[in-house]
Design a protein that fits this description.
By secondary structure, this protein is α/β, with parallel strands linked by helices. Helix content is about 50%, strand content about 15%. The longest helix is centred in the last third of the chain and has 26 residues.
Length: about 160
């Protein structure tokens, strides 16, 4: 059973979605990962989404390019939070088609949407959702955010010393 499920519309999306995987591994959250297509394997998408809760999934990260319907289709079948990652793919219109397909969901079927190719932010957001009820995980996130702050401070010091 995985806490977070990472779904991508095609294996060609893996290089983008790998950023989410790396973050989850660094922070220590169990996940599963699979390629499912809203257009080519709609039955498998429905099966995954309807069984996600009983399989222990707490948040779903779904990345797709082009006509990026995967996150919305998953959200239609479950009440588990879905975070969409628009992907600039080979058949994409500079990524705008993916962004708008995920962002413009109808009322009642929300999909949180991160930046184009923003899989790492999707993993961070998913982790924040889970950390609400997990003090240890929350502390890991605080440490992560502190490390971001320290990188900026260190870079500024480096610039000042040039």
């Amino acid at each position: 059973m995985a806490t977070i499920s990472i779904i991508m519309g095609s294996i060609s999306d893996y290089p983008v979605m790998e950023d989410a995987i790396k973050f989850l591994e660094e922070i220590g959250i169990d996940y599963d990962c699979r390629a499912l297509s809203a257009h080519r394997t709609p039955e498998l998408v429905m099966e995954f989404a309807t069984q996600a809760k009983s399989n222990g999934t707490k948040v779903i990260i779904a990345g797709a390019g082009g006509a990026a319907h995967l996150p919305g289709v998953i959200a239609a079948y479950t009440a588990i939070p879905v975070i969409g990652v628009p992907i600039k793919s080979s058949n994409s219109i500079d990524g705008w088609d993916s962004i708008l397909s995920i962002l413009q969901m109808p009322s009642g079927i929300p999909v949180a949407t991160v930046a184009l190719n923003g899989a790492k932010n999707a993993a961070i957001l998913a982790t924040e959702m889970i950390a609400i009820g997990d003090g240890n995980l929350y502390k890991k996130l605080e440490n992560f955010k502190e490390s971001l702050k320290q990188k900026v401070i260190d870079a500024n010091i480096k610039l000042q010393n040039k």
